[in-house]
Write a structure and sequence with these properties.
The complex is a heterodimer of chains A (267) and B (212). Chain A is of the alpha+beta class. Chain A contains 7 helices and 13 strands. The relative contact order of chain A is 0.19. Chain B has one domain. Classes of the chains: A alpha+beta (267), B mainly alpha (212). Chain B: It is a multi-pass membrane protein.
Chain lengths: 267, 212
């Protein structure tokens, strides 16, 4: 269904948007299988209503939010973000939602809240990929609290002016445009404020290949491929690859978060 | 298998009969490439055609290679030695799909830049292994003609035994591609088929030794 939102000119890109078809048919969502088209094929069975998101942990007022209340918590905005997958492909996507900070402020994080953990739903029976045991389900991702409070970090309810299709992480997900796509957890049921750095799913599987920070960085190659360039989905059969930008082009907004850090080590 | 199950010697296919089936095998082996063309014209290559074609060509190269290696065990099991007439064509198809795989990588991943390709070969184990597999395979394809068989004599067979190394390296390459994603079912499945094809040869070799 339609999800009306006001365009936010501050987060607008002139790049050609990736087609709605490609955005909703080429996904990584391993709960439904490891193939790129598995999510489209199998995600329809996922139950997205009723849905609550529990925001808990190091917070003065932890609580659960019903998805309908969550949608109305702040004004919905449409923002166009670049999405850069760690697999070296990219898209340009119009998301609908608001800054995650608006939600986090509601529960009043304490001084012990140094990190935020995102937990994706597990629905045995509705998610054929759960049998693969590639990931120790549920899928867990995380951010440092300052990254989570950054206005670019977005809580997303829709795409292309409609509610999220299941394969894109319905009914609610995050989008963190300066980080590789796997950081942006889908179909969230729990957001935990924690003191210690969470052990995220991909770090647990292959710490040498996937780091906690996972900032888009053309200078730090993945062990199995270069991150210097990317393939823009939908650019056509013979289109050359495009250069990958530091922090996926969001350096002006986010570089200061990492001042003094060795990004080669904290990849 | 008991002797009674085996076809009588008179049922052996002649070389000419097997040769007659060649156009059919050729068309079947061309199926993956024809499918790419069909999908290409019918919006069927998905959101990332480059990735699809690189993966698809790699997989079909491996399938063709395993089919090539299945010819010898098959001709022994069904007692049709003339089947060897199909082996070179299957081997050349394995080479064809490997070249497609390599060109896909060279163009879509490395933008035809030789320097960038060389860097990739040096830096990444799975590319290194794939390239090490490709070199002898190219040599096998080049020396597959009747003229080369005659000219090389005994050396020809010695050289062409490297196909076992090529196959093992190919499965290893596939395994390395999947490493880091914990998703090994397919490399293991192809590895198991290869192991079976090689074990049959070992078993045959041992039995021949004993018979002497």
């Amino acid at each position: 269904p339609a999800l009306p939102a006001a365009p936010n000119p501050e987060y607008w890109l002139s790049n050609k948007q990736t087609s709605e078809k490609d955005v909703s048919s080429y996904n990584n969502f391993y709960e439904f299988g490891t193939g790129k088209t598995d999510p489209l094929e199998y995600a329809a069975k996922m139950q997205t209503s009723p849905w609550t998101v529990s925001v808990e942990g190091e917070a003065a007022r932890p609580r659960s939010f019903d998805i309908d209340d969550l949608r109305k918590l702040a004004g919905l905005e449409e923002r166009i973000y670049r999405l850069r997958c760690v697999e070296a492909w990219s898209m340009v996507i119009p998301w609908t939602g608001y800054s995650l900070a608006a939600l986090l402020k509601q529960v009043e994080p304490t001084s012990k809240a140094k990190y935020v953990e995102f937990v994706t739903v597990v629905q045995p029976g509705n998610m054929p990929g759960l049998g693969d045991r590639i990931i120790d389900w549920p899928y867990v991702e995380g951010l440092r609290i300052d990254e989570a409070m950054h206005p670019l970090t977005m809580l997303v309810f829709g795409v292309y002016g409609k509610t999220l299709p299941n394969q894109n992480g319905a009914p609610v997900r995050v989008a963190i445009p300066w980080k590789y796509g796997f950081k942006s957890g889908k179909s969230l049921v729990k957001i935990r404020l924690v003191e210690k750095m969470p052990v995220t799913s991909w770090v647990k599987i292959a710490p040498r290949e996937y780091g906690f920070y996972a900032n888009v960085n053309p200078g730090v190659p993945h062990p199995r491929w270069s991150q210097a360039t990317e393939r823009r989905i939908g650019d056509g059969f013979f289109a050359p690859r495009v250069d990958t930008l530091m922090f996926n082009g969001y350096a002006d907004q986010v570089a200061s978060l990492y001042a003094g850090m060795d990004l080669g080590k904290n990849y | 298998m008991s002797a009674a199950d085996l076809p009588p010697a008179s049922a052996n296919w002649t070389a000419r009969q097997v040769a007659r089936a060649k156009p059919l095998v050729f068309l079947l082996a061309l199926y993956p490439a024809l499918r790419w063309v069909w999908l290409g014209f019918n919006d069927g290559l998905g959101a990332n055609p480059a990735e699809f074609l690189i993966r698809s060509s790699g997989l079909w190269a491996l399938v063709a290679l395993l089919l090539t290696l299945a010819v010898t065990p098959l001709r022994r099991i069904i007692r049709q030695p003339a089947l060897v007439r199909l082996r070179r064509m299957l081997g050349l198809f394995a080479f064809f799909y490997t070249v497609m795989h390599l060109l896909g990588w060279a163009f879509w991943e490395r933008g035809w830049s030789l320097a960038s390709m060389w860097e990739d070969v040096l830096q990444r184990t799975f590319i290194t292994v794939g390239m090490i597999a490709f070199v002898p395979m190219a040599a096998l394809a080049c020396t597959s003609t009747r003229g080369w068989i005659r000219r090389m004599g005994h050396c020809w067979q010695a050289l062409h035994r490297s196909v076992y190394a090529v196959a093992a390296l190919s499965v290893w390459h596939f395994w390395l591609v999947r490493a880091g994603k914990n998703d090994f079912f397919e490399p293991y499945a192809y590895g198991a088929v290869l192991a079976m094809l090689l074990l049959i040869r070992v078993g045959y070799f041992i039995r021949q030794r004993r018979a002497r």
